[in-house]
UniProtKB/TrEMBL annotation:
SUPFAM superfamilies: ALDH-like. Belongs to the aldehyde dehydrogenase family. GO terms for molecular function: oxidoreductase activity, acting on the aldehyde or oxo group of donors, NAD or NADP as acceptor. Residues 31-483 form the Aldehyde dehydrogenase domain. The keyword Oxidoreductase applies. InterPro entries: Ald_DH/histidinol_DH, Ald_DH_C, Ald_DH_N, Aldehyde_DH_dom. It comes from Micromonospora krabiensis. Keywords: Oxidoreductase. This is Aldehyde dehydrogenase (NAD+). Gene3D superfamilies: Aldehyde Dehydrogenase, Chain A, domain 1, Aldehyde Dehydrogenase, Chain A, domain 2.
């Protein structure tokens, strides 16, 4: 009996949404605390329900993962890579279902859901599959043999902004390394976890290697952080939650990998191609409604060029149609949930109150969108780099244009927040590269450099620790033993 949801006047079949139970040891298990609602932020309608977990459900999932560990960790990397390859193919085969599910639960435009949530995870899986043969699983240093071994039971806790991409970026390296997993998806966007579990079964992953427990951070997340039989937590989410997880996990000395918030700066140098720099900068501020950890919500411009930049930015922003995320023409949907809309709207009001110059959008709803979690994409100019909108992570479509006097000041402003996740530099290539090296951030793009699935990604400062992707990301999920001979 399929749950059907009424979205924008037409019925959508949502088969995976019927499955409310956790996925533990190859079985569907009811939540000990009943169910949690999943709400469509574009309409306010109930999309589906998932299990609501408790510490007892976490215990059960950890026991299943522990039981599956000896045999899974004894398989070869080549075997595990073959299973992962089938997982990637299985996800690709369900592209439309995954895209419409994610769009219904968190409001990303459906075109973006297809690329960022399916094509991107599939590319991540391929990149890890490709590493199985070349990664130094063992190596020698003098008289020592170094052996890389799985850590054991790894828990993954993820946010709602790219729900499938976030878990796949953890699942692929964790399982390739030979670990087993307990996964707690975001309660805001939990529905593709079930599709992923089904795909792993079809790919031949043994029961218990991958388990899903639904629930809130306050209950299930806390139980995971405190669990004595979980060896590692790989977390992506806010700096606030990451801090708490690290503190609780310290009691059992777990390994904790944290991918946290960001406040990326895009430095536009005097010798930059301005139209290119501004158009890419606006995209990096507005894509997924700005709900991207690696976004560039700050655009740093030579003071003498600010007027030119504002004109280009306003023109580019006008192309970001806001509206129904199931419409192929939409480029910005609603914020992922109503409380988040209120937070973003509050920052837009704060920017006005703090005296920044509003040049696009502003407080209030976009025209014609009287319900749903919508805000207006907004651009402020002449922003004080010490003001709240330039310092705090808004996680919405709000671009702050900050003028600078000289390059040293630009670098100081870029590095002048608690975060250090991403950044961009536009200018003559050698010049831009020299400035990129001065940024205290884990990933910097020069002149809009292309995404590379093998390049490490992660934060300096309060943007986290550890790295995801490629061989550095794989190494996060491995212990290293040295045997002296
Ligand atoms: P969030 O921190 O509120 O929640 C993330 C996950 O943590 C959810 O599954 C939540 O249930 C869980 N959680 C919350 N409190 C917890 C606790 N006390 N113990 C254990 N788990 C807990 O973040 P969100 O609102 O879902 O996502 C937005 C945030 O995620 C932003 O700050 C963004 O920058 C960050 N993010 C970072 C990256 C990255 O790679 N660095 C990527 C995407 C998002």
């Amino acid at each position: 009996d399929g749950v059907r949801c009424r979205c924008h006047g037409r019925f959508m079949t949502t088969s995976p949404l019927t499955a409310a139970g956790h996925w533990i040891g190859g079985e569907t298990v009811a939540g000990s605390a009943g169910t949690l609602p999943v709400v469509n932020p574009a309409t306010g309608d109930l999309v589906a329900e998932t299990a609501a977990g408790t510490a007892a459900d976490v215990d059960r999932a950890v026991a299943a993962a522990r039981a599956a560990f000896p045999s899974w960790s004894a398989t070869t990397p080549a075997h595990r890579a073959a299973v992962l390859r089938r997982v990637g193919a299985g996800l690709a085969a369900r592209t439309e279902e995954i895209a419409s599910t994610i769009t219904a639960e968190m409001g990303a435009p459906v075109g973006l859901s297809r690329t960022a949530q399916v094509a991107f995870p599939a590319a991540v899986i391929d990149s890890f599959v490709g590493l199985a043969d070349t990664f130094p699983w063992t190596e020698e240093i003098g008289n020592s043999l170094l052996v890389r071994e799985p850590i054991g039971v790894v828990a993954a806790i993820t946010p709602w902004n790219f729900p499938l991409q976030q878990i796949v970026s953890k699942l692929a390296p964790a399982l390739l390394a030979g670990n087993t997993m307990v996964f707690k998806p975001s309660e805001v966007a939990p529905l593709t976890a079930r599709i992923l579990a089904e795909v792993t079964v079809e790919a031949g992953l043994p029961a218990g290697v991958f388990n899903v427990v639904y629930g809130t951070g306050a209950v299930v997340g806390e139980a995971i952080s405190a669990h004595p039989d979980i060896d590692m937590i790989s977390f992506t989410g806010s700096t606030r939650a990451g801090r708490r997880i690290a503190a609780v996990a310290a009691e059992t000395v777990k390994r904790v990998a944290l991918e946290l918030g960001g406040k990326g700066a895009n430095i536009i140098l005097d010798d930059a191609d301005l139209p290119q720099a501004v158009s890419k900068g606006v995209a990096m501020a507005f894509t997924n409604g700005g709900q991207v950890c690696g976004a560039w919500p700050r655009m740093l411009v030579p003071a003498a060029r600010q007027d030119e930049v504002v004109a280009l930015a306003v023109e580019a922003a006008g192309q970001y149609t806001v509206g129904d995320p199931t419409d192929e023409a939409t480029r910005i949907g609603p914020m992922a949930h109503e409380a988040h809309r209120e937070k973003v709207a509050g920052y837009i009001e704060r920017g006005v109150a703090d005296g920044a110059r509003l040049v696009f959008g502003g407080p209030g709803r976009p025209a014609g969108l009287e319900k749903g979690a919508y805000v207006q994409p907004t651009i402020f100019a002449d922003v004080d780099p010490r003001s709240a909108i330039a310092q705090e992570e808004i996680f919405g479509p709000v671009l702050t244009i900050i003028p600078y006097a000289d390059e040293d000041e630009a670098v100081a402003i870029a590095n002048g927040t608690a975060y250090g996740l991403t950044g961009g530099v536009f200018g003559e290539p050698e010049h831009a590269l020299a400035v990129a090296r001065r940024l205290r951030a884990g990933q910097v793009d020069v002149n809009g450099g292309q995404w590379n699935a093998l390049a490490p990604f992660g934060g300096y400062k309060q943007s986290g620790n550890g790295r995801e992707f490629g061989r550095f990301g794989l190494a996060e999920f491995l212990e290293i033993k040295s045997i002296q001979r």
